[in-house]
Structures are given as structure tokens and as C-alpha cells.
Design a protein that fits this description.
Structural class: mainly alpha
InterPro entries: DHH_sf (IPR038763), SSDNA_exonuclease_RecJ (IPR051673)
Helix content: 25-40%
Protein name: Single-stranded-DNA-specific exonuclease RecJ
Strand content: under 5%
Oligomer: single chain
Largest sheet: none
Shape: elongated
Keywords: Plasmid
Number of helices: 4
Order of helices and strands: HHHH
């Protein structure tokens, strides 16, 4: 399946020179604004949030099953490979 993306004209003027967003590229700002971020605080929170801002991983589907599999692998001396993408786009909660 081919999916075409349309280029959107996104106004990042309110964000470009905001002191809390220093160092975030124009391209990144355009992507975030086009995905629905409306305030500098929302962008700052998304880009620079801390561990306290993360969701509880136990609320994700089948997390406890994954924990049991990992514990069993450790007990059996098995190798464990962990991989993922940066945005966790395939994660479903």
C-alpha cells in the first residue's frame, strides 16, 4: 500500500523564538504543530519531560505477561534481546 503525505503549511512563528524551545529545529516544530501541539508548554513537556511524566508501564496490555517471560528467561540463563523504535509507534495501550 502506498500512502502519500500532503505537505501542510504550518505557522511556527509563535514557537520559533520562544526561550523554552531553544535548540528545537524548525522542522521538528512544524511536525509537532502539525500533530496538534498548540502551546510552547506542550512542546516543552513532550521534548524535555522527565521520568515522572512517563505513563505507568503496568497499564500497557500484556506487560505482566512480558515480565513473566523475562523472569523465566533469566532463571533459565537464556539470552534476552530488546529492540524498539524511538517513537514507539507500534505500542498500543
Amino acid at each position: 500500500m502506498v500512502k502519500l503525505l500532503k505537505k501542510q503549511d504550518v505557522d511556527i512563528t509563535p514557537f520559533r523564538y520562544h526561550p523554552d524551545l531553544y535548540g528545537i529545529s524548525d522542522l521538528t516544530l512544524k511536525i509537532l504543530v502539525s500533530r496538534g501541539f498548540k502551546t510552547p508548554d506542550e512542546i516543552k513537556h513532550f521534548m524535555y519531560g522527565g521520568i515522572k511524566d512517563l505513563h505507568d508501564p503496568r497499564t500497557m496490555k500484556d506487560t505482566l505477561i512480558a515480565v513473566e517471560i523475562i523472569i523465566e528467561a533469566i532463571r533459565n540463563g537464556e539470552f534476552i534481546v530488546v529492540y524498539g523504535d524511538y517513537d514507539c509507534g507500534a505500542t498500543r495501550c
